[in-house]
């Protein structure tokens, strides 16, 4: 054990933080550091019984740690697979619900179309009379607007004619005034 302490004083440990290495190479770096530690521990040079115990202890520690990490990765992968499976099942359920709503909507549309066709063909008195009344009102209002516009055009023509007459009269007065002023 004392040789371990003296060796650790001679060779300082170099630790890499998680931010120093990329995520893809973190596994390889971790394995390399473990291998380096194991080789340092096994090549310490002393054949003490305590050194053998610490070496086997260190090896078992690293093996247990590696097993825990691999189990954790497997659990994460299973969780991710379960998440995808849940999402897939959810999407299928949503699709089924939307398909059923679409079918219901199609049925309602066909019923409404049938009612519309029956209303157009079967009962011309009810719907037809209302339509005729609205058409009559619209045509009457259009005729009224046309007659109003025709009256406005007549008034406009009369105003144009009167305006022209006043211009002619004004010209005549100007000529008279010019003759008188000479």
Fold and architecture overview:
There is one protein chain. The protein has 182 residues and is mainly alpha-helical. The protein has a domain at 138-182. It is built from four helices and no strands. The protein has helices spanning 2-10, 26-42, 49-122, 124-181. Helix 2 (26-42) runs antiparallel to helix 3. 0% of the residues are buried.
The number of distinct helices, counting runs of at least 4 residues, comes to: 4
Kindly state the mean pLDDT as a whole number? 76
User: Which class of secondary structure composition applies to the elements?
Assistant: mainly alpha
Element-by-element helix/strand order: HHHH
**What does the overall shape look like?**
elongated
Euclidean distance between termini CA atoms:
143 Å
User: Which consecutive residue ranges, at least 5 long each, have pLDDT under 50?
Assistant: 14-25, 45-50
TL;DR?
By secondary structure, the chain is an all-alpha fold.
Q: What labels describe this entry?
A:
mainly alpha
Architecture blueprint of SSEs:
Layout: H1 2-10, H2 26-42, H3 49-122, H4 124-181
């Amino acid at each position: 054990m004392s040789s371990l302490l003296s060796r650790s004083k001679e060779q300082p440990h170099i630790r890499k933080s998680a931010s120093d290495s990329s995520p893809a190479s973190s596994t390889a770096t971790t394995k390399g550091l473990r291998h380096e530690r194991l080789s340092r521990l096994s090549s310490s040079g002393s054949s003490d019984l305590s050194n053998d115990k610490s070496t086997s202890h260190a090896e078992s520690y690293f093996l247990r740690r590696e097993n825990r990490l691999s189990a954790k990765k497997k659990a994460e992968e299973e969780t991710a697979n379960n998440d995808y499976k849940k999402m897939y099942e959810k999407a299928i359920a949503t699709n089924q619900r939307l398909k059923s709503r679409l079918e219901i909507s199609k049925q309602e549309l066909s019923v409404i179309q049938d009612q519309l066709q029956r209303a157009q063909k079967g009962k011309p008195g009810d719907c037809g009379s209302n339509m005729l009344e609205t058409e009559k009102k619209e045509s009457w209002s259009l005729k009224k607007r046309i007659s109003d516009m025709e009256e406005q055009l007549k008034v406009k023509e009369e105003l144009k004619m009167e305006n022209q007459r006043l211009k002619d009269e004004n010209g005549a007065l100007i000529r008279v005034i010019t003759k008188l002023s000479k």
